[in-house]
Amino acid sequence: MELSSLLAHHARYRPQATAVIFDGQRLDYRGFNGRVNRAANLLTGLGVKPGERVATLLPNTLELLELYWACARIGAVVVPLSPLLTGAGLSSLISDAGAVCLVTQKSLLPVVAAVLPQLATLAPGRVLLIDGSLPPWGDYAALTAAASDGPPPDAEVSPDDLFNIMYTSGTTGLPKGIMHSHRVRAMYALLLGAAWRMTPESVVLHTGAIVFNGAFVTLMPAFHLGATYILHRQFDAAAMIETVARERVTHIMVVPAQVIALLDSPAFDATKLASLQMILSLGAPLAQPRKDQLNQLLPGRFHELYGLTEGFLTILDRTDAVRKAGSVGCPPPFSEVRIVDEQGRDLPPNQPGEIVGRGPFVMQGYWGKPELTTATLRDGWVFSGDIGYLDDEGYLYLVDRKKDMIDSGGVKVYPRDIEDIASRHPAIAEVAVFGIPHETWGETPLAAVVLKVPEGTQSAGADATAIELRDWINERVAARYQRVQQVVILPAFPRNAAGKTLKREMRDPYWADRAKPI
Fold first, then answer.
1. Helical H segments across 338-398, by residue range
2. Entry pTM
3. How many angstroms separate the most distant Cα atoms in the chain?
4. Three-state secondary structure along 457-491?
5. Which of 254, 296, 311, 329 could form a disulfide with 361 if both were Cys (CB 3.0 to 4.6 A apart)?
6. Distance between CA atoms of 275 and 203, rounded to whole angstroms?
């Protein structure tokens, strides 16, 4: 179950099958496997040992992709870090992981150099740049070119050895390092490939950041099956549409913001996307009107995944996408999901409570944080901190995050209920509802919105004002306590590397000074 054996298998039995397409480069499995061997031999030559951590600070690059497999090959632990990290955030994660090697690029070197004196485990010779020589930093390209493309010494990796530490995106607090074994990533490959109906002939396109754990739900099955994996440097709706049409892409994974950008793009053309067999949305709830739009324009393709990097998930299959509209599906085989109250007791169908789950994707724990691990992982069950309910057929429906819930005068207000209403307004592209201070009620809802840009205009939603939108929403919510205090129109939402909306960054300024008038 050593993961990089997948590449060796395909390199031997399907050497000329296309493995990776990136920036015009097309690598077959023999060629990509050779690159991975060179990277593995480079790391071994630097003295990286099994179990030691190799950090990456890179955007989407071919080098980042090959390092995932190279670390697996020598039993090292890969620690993918977001290239948006700077200063204390970067140094704290490298220190927390105890990384002995860091691979980055010249444009990010200033932030690395600024924190390097604080990092006892790193030396300049173990900081490698993928884009050329700049002494005293190592030249990754030159060093890999000089390394052997033959297999490195056998690291005797076992299924329960650690494969990666994935740091949480930090939308609700300080990032935590989530530990996944080779066995868990193999389960991603086996179970999710079946769920997406992938085959060796599949063509998988990924345009989001592959430092995001969600990328692995298509990456692992693609390489397990020997499919073609296309990686873009970054998301661009028009480029994605053109690639799907040109390469006859069959599978894509997108976050809701990318779904919205695709549907609203002037380049959108359903005929260009006709080859798609799967459109998977994950990372955050996708508003129902957008799901309906997607199912109408590209029927029979939409899947939705709800899950935690910590280790369980549910899938709304394309066959249920219309029948179970509003649901995020059911657990895959070998997995379970329950709804529990605050004492951990099971709740009956249709009654909201905390979502807990278990299965073959469960993490080994949080790196170096046993107390947090114990709080989240109890008797093999992951406690999500999310609120939801199961219907009579066992399908899961999300209500909201516990931490996002608004307490207005002792009444629980779930932002998602209001977001579902607001997203139906024809001028609203995206909405995020959160609580702000209120002298009487403690908290009250505020809706931040991004407006659609009408085709042929330069300004967004010129006819929609904040007051009009507030009144429109408040006329349609189910209860008085769901009425929003105000609507704030923003040009865009702050996002992390995974494309998730950072509600905390929008909400915190309102709480910085409780005396601030609202």
1. 370-376
2. 0.84
3. 70
4. CCCCCCCCCHHHHHHHHHHHCCCHHHCCCEEEECC
5. 311
6. 10
The arrangement of strands across the sheet holding 203-206 comes to 25-28, 18-22, 228-231, 203-206, 251-254, 278-281, 302-308, 312-316
| Full DSSP string of 10-65 | HHHHSTTSEEEEETTEEEEHHHHHHHHHHHHHHHHHTT--TT-EEEEE-SS-HHHH
Distance CA 512, CA 194 (A): 48
CA-based nearest residue to 327, from 276, 382, 393: 393
Q: pLDDT for 396-415, tens place per residue?
A: 998 877 778 787 866 778 88
In Å, how far from its chain's centre is CA 311? 13
For residue 344, the tally of other CB atoms under 10 A from its CB is 14
Which residues are CB-contacts of 99 (< 8 A; sequence separation ≥ 6)? Answer: 53, 54, 55, 79, 119, 121, 122
* Beta pairing class for 25-28 and 18-22: antiparallel
Domains of the chain: 27-156 (3.40.50.980), 184-401 (3.40.50.12780), 406-511 (3.30.300.30)
pLDDT number for residue 174: 65
